[in-house]
Amino acid sequence: MIATAIDASSLADLATELEAAGLVVSDLADPDRRFFRFEDAAGVVGYGGVEGLGADRLVRSLVVTANRRGQGLGAAMLAAIERAAADDGAASLYMLTTTAEPFFRGRGYETARRDDAPAAIASSAEFRTLCPASATFLCKRIA
Predict the structure, then answer these.
(1) C-alpha atoms less than 13 angstroms from C-alpha of 113 in its C-beta half-sphere
(2) Where are the domains of the chain?
(3) CATH for 2-141, among 2.60.40.420, 3.40.50.920, 3.30.1510.10, 3.40.630.30?
(4) Phi, then psi, of 103 in degrees rounded to 5
(5) Would you tell me how many other CB atoms lie within 10 Å of the CB of residue 69?
(6) Residue 3: how many CB atoms within 10 A of its CB?
(7) Which is it for strands 2-6 and 92-97: parallel, antiparallel or unpaired?
């Protein structure tokens, strides 16, 4: 599988997949986001990325295209995102989810208290307003 960084001009395809999956799209073009398109020989597999620049970052917008789900591709995509974030200086990844807690727990993410969120995470729009307060808050140390 190949991961390609996508720029602002390629966000429309990402937004289409996220909307189909019921995920947030309103802030995709905001600064400090790094998204990837994942492809294999059969075509686009999915998208995902991170938000932030410091040691603490958010996993954002991880989605496998509908016709490729159930093949273990999400785990490979997440591993690639984690490697890219670690290579770029991240030490911990956080995420908010209303639907994929078992998936992330199976990949080493643990429940975190929202009150304990680092400032860089707590100040993000995703944390403050875009994800509901009922979303599960998870964390994983990657470096």
Answers:
(1) 2
(2) 2-141
(3) 3.40.630.30
(4) -60, -50
(5) 14
(6) 19
(7) unpaired
Mean pLDDT of all residues belonging to the chain: 93
Tokens of 22: 């019921």
pTM across the whole model: 0.93
Burial class (CB in 10 A: 0-12, 13-18, 19+), 7: exposed
| Residue of 73, 19, 75, 8 lying closest to 44 (CA atoms) | 73
Q: How many CB atoms lie within 10 A of CB 21?
A: 18
Tens-binned pLDDT, residue by residue, of the chain (143 aa): 899 999 877 899 999 999 998 888 889 999 899 999 999 999 999 999 999 999 999 999 899 999 999 999 999 999 999 999 999 999 999 999 998 999 999 999 999 999 999 999 999 999 999 888 899 999 999 98
